[in-house]
Design brief:
Order of helices and strands: HEEEHHEHEHEHHHHHEHEHH
InterPro entries: AB_hydrolase_1, AB_hydrolase_fold, AB_hydrolase_sf, Epox_hydrolase-like
Largest sheet: 8 strands, mixed
Helix content: 40-55%
CATH topology: Rossmann fold
CATH superfamily: Alpha/Beta hydrolase fold, catalytic domain
Number of helices: 13
GO molecular function, one term: hydrolase activity
Number of strands: 8
Oligomer: single chain
Keywords: Hydrolase
Pfam families: Abhydrolase_1
Organism: Streptomyces endophyticus
């Protein structure tokens, strides 16, 4: 297999709303990987260390959402336009159906896409994020730290946010901090973050959702057709594990796997155990 480096896997897809950038590795059934949100996030940083496990079995496609400093930005709220980016991406590659892994925000995007296009998602894996708080306060600690950093982007604020992502604090290395800091403070990336994470933006999104009269996505999970694996860190300080109860109970063909000694970045912090569980789910012989 070709070395799975950033440059060797990097690809571009021209669309009618700008260039979508992504990483591709492996051959086989298509597996779409959708990144989460937060300062300095990219799909490559979320999933780069998982590709070696999945590429021997799947054609892995790591999409970079518009508005996060890699793919071309589009008008509108980056979270609101992420679903259309997925559709543009799959149409542009001529893919009718995929399996999806979504981290945090990417899990919400993947779930919404699967609800809207039930024939296009065969299997869905989420990493924290989806559902709603039942016992824990919302927004969670990590979200509040994210808003604080967005409104006052300091290196110390970034470190506080990064530390809320993981159970094992040794994972917050100087290399990680510098990598995230350089990207998060890029003017275009920071402007996009403020459209998403400022307290004003959060309040505006909540008001718009209430005014729309449409049910929230988590209230529609009983309509999800894709077999679904919910993966969660027991010690998640962004989306507390009680958020998993609604999707676990209402998704018709859903499973829940909770990993101990693990925060929000399950695919990083419990890499081997998470990869084993996800690979078994995606390749299970009873899959249809």
């Amino acid at each position: 297999m070709t070395e799975l480096s950033h440059d060797s896997t990097r690809r571009e897809l021209a669309t009618d709303e700008g260039v979508l950038r992504y990483h591709e590795a492996g051959e086989g059934p298509p597996l779409l990987l959708l990144h989460g949100s937060g300062p300095g996030v990219t799909g490559w940083r979320n999933f780069r260390d998982n590709l070696a496990t999945f590429a021997p079995h799947f054609r892995c496609l790591v999409l970079e959402f518009p508005g996060f400093g890699v793919s071309d930005s589009t008008d509108g709220h980056p979270m609101a336009t992420a679903g259309t980016a997925v559709e543009r991406f799959l149409d542009g590659l001529g893919l009718d159906q995929v399996d999806v892994i979504g981290n945090s925000m990417g899990g919400i995007v993947g779930t919404r896409f699967a609800l809207a296009h039930p024939d296009r998602v065969r299997r869905l894996v989420t990493i924290g994020g989806i559902g709603r708080n039942l016992y824990s306060p919302g927004p969670g600690e990590g979200i509040n730290l994210l808003m604080e950093f967005t409104e006052n982007p300091t290196r110390e604020g970034l470190v506080r946010w990064l530390r809320s992502m993981v159970h094992d604090q040794s994972l917050v290395t100087e290399e990680l901090i510098e990598e995230r800091w350089a990207h998060a403070t890029d003017p275009e990336t920071l402007a996009g973050a403020r459209r998403m994470y400022s307290r004003e933006a959060f309040a505006a999104s909540a008001a718009a959702a209430a005014a729309s009269g449409e049910p929230p996505y988590w209230a529609m999970l009983h309509q999800l057709k894709a077999k679904t694996l919910l993966t969660w860190g027991r010690d998640d300080r962004v989306s507390a594990v009680d958020m998993s109860i609604v999707p676990m109970r209402t998704i018709p063909d859903g499973e829940l796997h909770v990993f101990p000694n693990c925060g929000h970045w399950v695919m990083i912090e419990q890499k081997a155990a998470w990869e084993s569980a996800v690979l078994a789910f995606l390749t299970r012989k009873d899959a249809s």
